Amino acid sequence: ELCLGAEHSVGSLSKNALKKKLKMEKAAKLRAEKAAAAAAAHASNTSKAGEIEEELDPTKYYENRRAMIAKLAETGVDAYPNSFETTKRLGDYVTRYRD
Predict the structure, then answer these.
(1) Among candidates 35, 34, 7, 36, which has minimal Cα distance to 21?
(2) What is the pLDDT of residue 22?
């Protein structure tokens, strides 16, 4: 169904051209709404953006990794454990999860 508003005149446009024009205007309106929503979301996340950008900066990978390992060491967590505790035997695991 083709709905014509006051801003659209049928005068020199064919029906297909008018449909195309309406479709393009609708798409432009949706793009503008998405851009406005993205801008609002970006504005609300500005404080996080600086932290995330620092973490993702390729020149800072080494420093970020060292800082993370230091924080883990302060809390008593070994970032690179040499062993781990087992709670099940292989036979028990196979029996329980066979199917």
Answers:
(1) 7
(2) 93
